[in-house]
């Protein structure tokens, strides 16, 4: 009964441990950054013989020196640090746009990249002295209610349309979908007109 009897307890302990780890706060976020460029560490990660870690780009920059950037000890080569890579892959953070409905929990090192393309990121109104901030759909409603701007038109792929823009700041957002051949055409423009 030894090993088979202990498995459920081990599985339960592992599940409880995983749940507890989900709520760990990093007291020293610098420990998750490269000691040379100070960007978040992401795989592949390398370490010197003393355990000092660097990101991949800095590893290649430091390799010709033959010395660790921290301790200065001569090192033949930095070695991959698989344990740190696994740790970093397991650290998940909430998207800053969670308050706007984003449920993504990217890896710590991927948060910036996620934020650049997050569909829940709020949009600011380009109107002068307007402090509106909201999701794209709310911004389109805001354009209609606050400025009387028409907010949407729908055309099919490869069709053209004429849009008359009033004087002042004009904002166009094109949101395209993929066709059956997986071809997507997206264009957007933003311009100021005074004529």
UniProtKB/TrEMBL annotation:
Occurrences of domain SIAH-type (ranges): 90-148
First-tier enzyme category under EC: transferase
The organism's place on the tree of life at top rank: Eukaryota
SUPFAM superfamilies in the record: TRAF domain-like
The UniProt record lists the keyword Metal-binding: yes
Sections of the chain in a coiled coil: none
Molecular functions (GO terms): ubiquitin protein ligase activity; zinc ion binding
Pathway named in the protein's UniProt entry: Protein modification; protein ubiquitination
EC number, UniProt record: 2.3.2.27
Protein keywords: Metal-binding, Transferase, Ubl conjugation pathway, Zinc, Zinc-finger
GO CC terms in record: cytoplasm
GO BP, one annotated term: protein ubiquitination
InterPro entries recorded: E3_ubiquitin-ligase_SINA, Sina-like_RING, Znf_RING/FYVE/PHD, Znf_SIAH
Reaction equation(s) it catalyzes: S-ubiquitinyl-[E2 ubiquitin-conjugating enzyme]-L-cysteine + [acceptor protein]-L-lysine = [E2 ubiquitin-conjugating enzyme]-L-cysteine + N(6)-ubiquitinyl-[acceptor protein]-L-lysine
Family: Belongs to the SINA (Seven in absentia) family.
Entry protein name: RING-type E3 ubiquitin transferase
Organism listed in the record: Panicum miliaceum (Proso millet)
């Amino acid at each position: 009964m030894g090993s088979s009897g202990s498995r459920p307890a081990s599985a339960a302990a592992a599940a409880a441990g995983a749940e507890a780890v989900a709520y760990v706060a990093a007291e020293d976020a610098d420990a998750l950054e490269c000691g040379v460029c100070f960007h978040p560490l992401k795989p592949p990660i390398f370490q010197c013989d003393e355990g000092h870690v660097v990101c991949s780009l800095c590893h290649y920059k430091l390799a010709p020196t033959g010395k660790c950037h921290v301790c200065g000890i001569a090192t033949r080569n930095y070695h991959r640090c698989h344990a740190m890579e696994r740790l970093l892959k397991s650290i998940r953070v909430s998207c800053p746009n969670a308050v706007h409905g984003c449920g993504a929990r990217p890896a710590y090192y991927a948060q910036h990249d996620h934020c650049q393309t997050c569909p829940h990121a709020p949009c600011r109104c380009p109107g002068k002295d307007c402090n509106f901030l909201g999701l794209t759909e709310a911004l389109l409603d805001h354009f209609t209610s606050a400025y009387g701007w028409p907010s949407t038109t729908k055309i099919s792929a490869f069709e053209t349309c004429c849009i008359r823009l009033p004087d002042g700041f004009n904002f166009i957002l094109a949101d395209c979908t993929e066709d059956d051949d997986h071809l997507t055409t997206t264009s957007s423009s933003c311009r100021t007109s005074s004529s």
